[in-house]
Protein backbone atom coordinates (compact mmCIF):
# COMPACT_ATOMS: atom_id res chain seq x y z
CA UNK A 1 0.00 0.00 0.00
CA UNK A 2 1.35 3.44 -0.97
CA UNK A 3 1.68 5.82 1.94
CA UNK A 4 -0.23 9.05 1.41
CA UNK A 5 1.20 12.51 2.02
CA UNK A 6 -0.85 15.64 2.46
CA UNK A 7 0.33 18.50 0.25
CA UNK A 8 -0.49 21.99 1.51
CA UNK A 9 -0.52 25.05 -0.84
CA UNK A 10 1.55 28.05 0.27
CA UNK A 11 2.62 31.40 -1.18
CA UNK A 12 6.29 31.99 -0.31
CA UNK A 13 6.90 35.62 -1.31
CA UNK A 14 4.71 38.41 0.11
CA UNK A 15 4.93 42.01 1.30
CA UNK A 16 2.80 44.16 3.61
CA UNK A 17 2.63 47.78 4.73
CA UNK A 18 5.67 47.01 6.88
CA UNK A 19 7.71 47.49 3.67
CA UNK A 20 6.34 48.41 0.22
CA UNK A 21 3.13 46.36 0.25
CA UNK A 22 -0.37 47.83 0.24
CA UNK A 23 -2.00 45.36 2.65
CA UNK A 24 -1.89 44.94 6.39
CA UNK A 25 -0.92 41.49 7.64
CA UNK A 26 -4.52 40.53 8.43
CA UNK A 27 -5.68 41.79 5.01
CA UNK A 28 -2.94 39.73 3.38
CA UNK A 29 -3.94 36.63 5.36
CA UNK A 30 -7.60 36.97 4.37
CA UNK A 31 -6.57 37.46 0.71
CA UNK A 32 -4.37 34.36 0.86
CA UNK A 33 -7.39 32.43 2.15
CA UNK A 34 -9.51 33.66 -0.77
CA UNK A 35 -6.84 32.40 -3.16
CA UNK A 36 -7.39 28.91 -1.80
CA UNK A 37 -4.08 28.71 0.08
CA UNK A 38 -3.37 27.43 3.58
CA UNK A 39 -0.44 29.69 4.42
CA UNK A 40 2.23 32.11 3.29
CA UNK A 41 5.69 33.38 4.08
CA UNK A 42 5.91 36.97 5.29
CA UNK A 43 8.98 38.33 3.47
CA UNK A 44 8.97 42.11 3.82
CA UNK A 45 12.00 43.95 2.46
CA UNK A 46 14.79 44.21 5.05
CA UNK A 47 12.49 44.22 8.07
CA UNK A 48 10.86 41.81 10.50
CA UNK A 49 8.58 44.40 12.11
CA UNK A 50 5.52 42.39 11.05
CA UNK A 51 6.54 39.41 13.20
CA UNK A 52 4.81 40.92 16.23
CA UNK A 53 1.44 40.57 14.46
CA UNK A 54 1.83 36.96 13.28
CA UNK A 55 0.39 35.10 16.26
CA UNK A 56 -2.77 37.22 16.40
CA UNK A 57 -3.20 37.11 12.62
CA UNK A 58 -2.91 33.32 12.55
CA UNK A 59 -5.52 33.06 15.30
CA UNK A 60 -7.98 35.37 13.52
CA UNK A 61 -7.53 34.06 9.99
CA UNK A 62 -6.73 30.39 10.45
CA UNK A 63 -3.85 30.89 8.03
CA UNK A 64 -0.32 29.62 8.77
CA UNK A 65 2.45 32.22 8.46
CA UNK A 66 6.16 31.47 8.00
CA UNK A 67 8.55 34.09 9.36
CA UNK A 68 10.86 35.49 6.69
CA UNK A 69 12.69 38.49 5.26
CA UNK A 70 13.62 39.48 1.73
CA UNK A 71 17.17 40.80 1.97
CA UNK A 72 17.02 43.48 -0.70
CA UNK A 73 20.38 44.72 -1.99
CA UNK A 74 21.83 46.28 -5.12
CA UNK A 75 23.24 42.89 -6.19
CA UNK A 76 20.20 40.66 -5.72
CA UNK A 77 17.27 39.74 -3.49
CA UNK A 78 17.70 36.80 -1.10
CA UNK A 79 14.77 35.28 0.76
CA UNK A 80 15.39 34.04 4.31
CA UNK A 81 12.77 31.77 5.93
CA UNK A 82 12.41 30.16 9.33
CA UNK A 83 14.21 32.77 11.41
CA UNK A 84 12.94 34.71 14.43
CA UNK A 85 15.25 37.70 14.39
CA UNK A 86 16.34 40.52 12.12
CA UNK A 87 18.97 39.67 9.51
CA UNK A 88 21.04 42.72 8.58
CA UNK A 89 21.48 43.45 4.90
CA UNK A 90 23.43 46.73 5.02
CA UNK A 91 26.94 45.30 4.95
CA UNK A 92 26.26 42.67 2.27
CA UNK A 93 28.71 42.79 -0.63
CA UNK A 94 29.57 40.44 -3.48
CA UNK A 95 32.35 38.98 -1.31
CA UNK A 96 30.66 38.29 2.06
CA UNK A 97 27.29 36.79 1.12
CA UNK A 98 28.35 33.33 2.27
CA UNK A 99 28.92 34.54 5.84
CA UNK A 100 25.31 35.74 6.04
CA UNK A 101 24.04 32.45 4.60
CA UNK A 102 26.02 30.50 7.22
CA UNK A 103 24.52 32.71 9.93
CA UNK A 104 21.01 31.80 8.77
CA UNK A 105 21.86 28.09 8.52
CA UNK A 106 23.35 28.10 12.02
CA UNK A 107 19.87 28.93 13.33
CA UNK A 108 18.13 26.33 11.14
CA UNK A 109 16.80 28.88 8.67
CA UNK A 110 16.90 28.49 4.90
CA UNK A 111 17.87 30.85 2.08
CA UNK A 112 16.57 31.17 -1.44
CA UNK A 113 17.22 33.35 -4.47
CA UNK A 114 14.23 35.42 -5.55
CA UNK A 115 13.40 36.04 -9.25
CA UNK A 116 17.08 35.70 -10.33
CA UNK A 117 16.59 36.90 -13.92
CA UNK A 118 13.98 39.62 -13.48
CA UNK A 119 15.16 42.89 -15.11
CA UNK A 120 17.16 45.00 -12.68
CA UNK A 121 17.80 48.73 -12.37
CA UNK A 122 16.20 51.08 -13.19
CA UNK A 123 13.10 48.87 -13.46
CA UNK A 124 13.71 47.03 -10.20
CA UNK A 125 16.73 47.80 -8.03
CA UNK A 126 18.70 44.65 -7.36
CA UNK A 127 16.07 42.26 -8.75
CA UNK A 128 18.58 40.68 -11.14
CA UNK A 129 20.89 38.32 -9.23
CA UNK A 130 24.56 39.37 -9.51
CA UNK A 131 26.15 37.60 -6.54
CA UNK A 132 28.65 34.90 -7.51
CA UNK A 133 27.84 31.53 -5.93
CA UNK A 134 30.95 29.38 -5.56
CA UNK A 135 29.13 26.50 -3.90
CA UNK A 136 25.47 26.11 -4.78
CA UNK A 137 24.98 23.57 -2.00
CA UNK A 138 24.77 26.62 0.30
CA UNK A 139 21.55 27.72 -1.44
CA UNK A 140 18.46 25.90 -0.20
CA UNK A 141 15.93 26.94 -2.82
CA UNK A 142 15.44 28.85 -6.04
CA UNK A 143 12.37 30.84 -7.05
CA UNK A 144 11.99 29.50 -10.59
CA UNK A 145 8.42 30.75 -11.15
CA UNK A 146 7.55 34.33 -10.22
CA UNK A 147 4.42 36.48 -10.65
CA UNK A 148 1.15 35.40 -12.32
CA UNK A 149 0.94 32.90 -15.22
CA UNK A 150 4.62 32.25 -14.59
CA UNK A 151 5.58 29.31 -16.80
CA UNK A 152 5.65 31.25 -20.08
CA UNK A 153 7.59 34.31 -18.86
CA UNK A 154 11.09 34.67 -20.27
CA UNK A 155 12.85 35.41 -16.97
CA UNK A 156 11.18 32.37 -15.39
CA UNK A 157 12.24 30.15 -18.29
CA UNK A 158 15.84 31.21 -17.60
CA UNK A 159 15.44 30.49 -13.88
CA UNK A 160 13.97 27.07 -14.65
CA UNK A 161 16.92 26.26 -16.94
CA UNK A 162 19.37 27.38 -14.24
CA UNK A 163 17.71 25.02 -11.76
CA UNK A 164 17.87 22.14 -14.23
CA UNK A 165 21.54 22.85 -14.96
CA UNK A 166 22.32 22.78 -11.23
CA UNK A 167 20.49 19.47 -10.82
CA UNK A 168 22.55 18.07 -13.69
CA UNK A 169 25.71 19.13 -11.85
CA UNK A 170 24.64 17.07 -8.85
CA UNK A 171 23.22 19.79 -6.59
CA UNK A 172 20.05 19.17 -4.57
CA UNK A 173 18.21 22.50 -4.66
CA UNK A 174 14.48 22.98 -4.13
CA UNK A 175 12.45 24.86 -6.76
CA UNK A 176 9.49 26.98 -5.65
CA UNK A 177 7.09 29.60 -6.97
CA UNK A 178 6.64 33.11 -5.59
CA UNK A 179 3.94 35.60 -6.48
CA UNK A 180 5.93 38.49 -4.97
CA UNK A 181 2.59 39.74 -3.70
CA UNK A 182 2.31 43.45 -2.83
CA UNK A 183 -1.44 44.10 -3.29
CA UNK A 184 -4.67 42.54 -4.48
CA UNK A 185 -4.05 41.07 -7.93
CA UNK A 186 -6.40 42.64 -10.47
CA UNK A 187 -5.47 40.19 -13.25
CA UNK A 188 -7.35 36.98 -13.92
CA UNK A 189 -4.12 35.17 -14.78
CA UNK A 190 -3.57 31.84 -12.99
CA UNK A 191 -1.45 31.89 -9.86
CA UNK A 192 1.04 29.14 -9.09
CA UNK A 193 1.13 27.62 -5.62
CA UNK A 194 3.99 25.90 -3.83
CA UNK A 195 2.63 22.69 -2.31
CA UNK A 196 4.62 21.60 0.73
CA UNK A 197 4.61 18.07 2.12
CA UNK A 198 2.73 18.07 5.41
CA UNK A 199 2.68 14.67 7.12
CA UNK A 200 0.13 14.52 9.90
CA UNK A 201 -1.31 17.53 11.69
CA UNK A 202 1.68 19.83 11.27
CA UNK A 203 0.28 22.82 9.39
CA UNK A 204 1.21 25.26 12.17
CA UNK A 205 4.58 23.61 12.80
CA UNK A 206 6.97 26.05 11.14
CA UNK A 207 9.95 23.76 11.67
CA UNK A 208 8.27 20.96 9.70
CA UNK A 209 7.40 23.32 6.86
CA UNK A 210 10.99 24.56 6.67
CA UNK A 211 12.25 20.97 6.79
CA UNK A 212 10.07 20.01 3.82
CA UNK A 213 11.31 23.03 1.85
CA UNK A 214 14.91 22.18 2.69
CA UNK A 215 14.45 18.54 1.67
CA UNK A 216 12.74 19.35 -1.63
CA UNK A 217 9.40 17.81 -0.64
CA UNK A 218 7.68 20.38 -2.84
CA UNK A 219 5.33 20.55 -5.86
CA UNK A 220 4.56 23.68 -7.89
CA UNK A 221 1.31 24.04 -9.84
CA UNK A 222 -0.96 26.61 -11.47
CA UNK A 223 -3.78 24.06 -11.54
CA UNK A 224 -4.19 20.40 -10.53
CA UNK A 225 -1.92 18.85 -7.93
CA UNK A 226 0.68 16.64 -9.63
CA UNK A 227 2.14 13.93 -7.37
CA UNK A 228 4.91 11.49 -8.21
CA UNK A 229 6.15 8.35 -6.44
CA UNK A 230 8.59 5.57 -7.27
CA UNK A 231 8.20 2.09 -5.79
CA UNK A 232 9.96 -1.25 -5.94
CA UNK A 233 8.09 -3.79 -8.06
CA UNK A 234 7.28 -5.95 -5.02
CA UNK A 235 6.04 -2.73 -3.33
CA UNK A 236 8.12 -3.28 -0.20
CA UNK A 237 9.69 0.17 -0.63
CA UNK A 238 8.55 3.48 -2.06
CA UNK A 239 10.03 6.94 -2.47
CA UNK A 240 8.40 10.35 -2.60
CA UNK A 241 9.40 13.73 -4.01
CA UNK A 242 12.65 14.92 -2.42
CA UNK A 243 13.78 11.42 -1.44
CA UNK A 244 17.06 9.80 -2.48
CA UNK A 245 16.90 6.29 -3.96
CA UNK A 246 20.02 4.26 -3.16
CA UNK A 247 20.58 1.42 -5.64
CA UNK A 248 23.13 -1.39 -5.83
CA UNK A 249 22.77 -2.64 -9.39
CA UNK A 250 23.97 -1.12 -12.67
CA UNK A 251 20.33 -0.74 -13.68
CA UNK A 252 17.03 -1.68 -12.11
CA UNK A 253 13.35 -1.71 -13.00
CA UNK A 254 11.10 0.32 -10.71
CA UNK A 255 7.46 1.27 -10.60
CA UNK A 256 6.23 4.80 -11.37
CA UNK A 257 3.03 6.24 -9.91
CA UNK A 258 1.72 9.63 -11.02
CA UNK A 259 -1.54 11.21 -9.93
CA UNK A 260 -3.37 14.33 -11.12
CA UNK A 261 -5.67 15.63 -8.37
CA UNK A 262 -8.36 17.79 -10.00
CA UNK A 263 -10.06 18.64 -6.68
CA UNK A 264 -7.60 21.30 -5.46
CA UNK A 265 -8.36 25.03 -5.78
CA UNK A 266 -11.02 24.23 -8.40
CA UNK A 267 -12.35 27.80 -8.59
CA UNK A 268 -8.93 29.26 -9.38
CA UNK A 269 -7.94 27.67 -12.72
CA UNK A 270 -9.31 26.39 -16.02
CA UNK A 271 -7.73 23.70 -18.19
CA UNK A 272 -8.68 21.58 -21.19
CA UNK A 273 -8.57 18.16 -19.58
CA UNK A 274 -8.11 16.25 -22.83
CA UNK A 275 -4.89 18.17 -23.51
CA UNK A 276 -3.05 16.97 -20.39
CA UNK A 277 0.24 15.10 -20.72
CA UNK A 278 2.77 14.12 -18.08
CA UNK A 279 6.45 13.92 -18.94
CA UNK A 280 9.25 12.46 -16.83
CA UNK A 281 12.30 14.70 -17.10
CA UNK A 282 15.82 13.87 -15.87
CA UNK A 283 19.52 14.63 -16.27
CA UNK A 284 19.33 12.26 -19.28
CA UNK A 285 16.51 14.27 -20.84
CA UNK A 286 12.88 13.27 -21.14
CA UNK A 287 12.41 9.57 -20.36
CA UNK A 288 8.80 9.24 -21.51
CA UNK A 289 5.45 11.00 -21.77
CA UNK A 290 1.91 9.83 -21.15
CA UNK A 291 -1.44 11.33 -22.00
CA UNK A 292 -3.95 11.44 -19.17
CA UNK A 293 -6.71 9.19 -20.46
CA UNK A 294 -9.09 8.87 -17.52
CA UNK A 295 -10.68 11.20 -15.02
CA UNK A 296 -8.98 9.49 -12.10
CA UNK A 297 -5.77 11.14 -13.30
CA UNK A 298 -3.67 8.13 -12.29
CA UNK A 299 -0.78 6.54 -14.15
CA UNK A 300 1.05 3.42 -12.94
CA UNK A 301 3.75 1.73 -15.00
CA UNK A 302 7.28 0.34 -14.86
CA UNK A 303 10.51 1.98 -16.00
CA UNK A 304 14.12 0.86 -16.37
CA UNK A 305 16.43 3.07 -14.29
CA UNK A 306 19.88 3.46 -15.92
CA UNK A 307 23.00 3.81 -13.79
CA UNK A 308 23.74 7.34 -15.05
CA UNK A 309 20.43 8.69 -13.75
CA UNK A 310 20.91 11.44 -11.12
CA UNK A 311 17.38 12.78 -10.75
CA UNK A 312 13.85 12.50 -12.14
CA UNK A 313 10.87 14.86 -11.91
CA UNK A 314 7.32 14.89 -13.31
CA UNK A 315 6.04 17.78 -15.44
CA UNK A 316 2.42 18.41 -16.42
CA UNK A 317 1.64 20.10 -19.75
CA UNK A 318 -1.67 21.15 -21.26
CA UNK A 319 -3.88 23.98 -22.45
CA UNK A 320 -4.69 26.56 -19.79
CA UNK A 321 -6.70 29.65 -20.70
CA UNK A 322 -6.15 28.89 -24.38
CA UNK A 323 -2.35 28.59 -24.11
CA UNK A 324 -0.27 25.41 -24.15
CA UNK A 325 2.04 25.67 -21.12
CA UNK A 326 3.73 23.71 -18.38
CA UNK A 327 1.01 23.67 -15.74
CA UNK A 328 2.87 21.97 -12.90
CA UNK A 329 6.09 20.25 -11.96
CA UNK A 330 7.42 18.28 -9.04
CA UNK A 331 10.79 18.58 -7.40
CA UNK A 332 12.95 15.56 -8.19
CA UNK A 333 13.44 12.15 -6.73
CA UNK A 334 17.22 11.62 -6.64
CA UNK A 335 19.31 8.53 -7.40
CA UNK A 336 22.61 7.32 -6.02
CA UNK A 337 24.25 4.08 -7.17
CA UNK A 338 26.69 2.39 -4.83
CA UNK A 339 30.08 1.69 -6.40
Which keywords apply here?
339 residues, 15-stranded mixed beta sheet, alpha+beta, single chain, four-stranded antiparallel beta sheet, globular, 16% helix
Notes on the structure:
The strands form two sheets. This protein has a 15-stranded mixed β-sheet that branches. A four-stranded antiparallel β-sheet has the order 11-10-13-16, with no helix packed on it. The chain is of the alpha+beta class and 339 residues long. The mean pLDDT is 92. Helices cover 16% and strands 36% of the residues. α1 packs parallel to α2.
Helix content: 10-25%
Distance between the termini: 31 Å
Specify Rg, calculated over alpha carbons: 20 Å
Q: Biggest sheet, open or closed, and with what strands and sense?
A: 15 strands, mixed
Question: Which residues sit in consecutive blocks of at least 5 with pLDDT less than 50?
Answer: none
Determine the mean pLDDT. Answer: 92
The helix/strand order is: EHEHEEHEEHEEHEEEEEEEEEEE
Structural class: alpha+beta
Number of strands: 19
Strand content: 35-45%
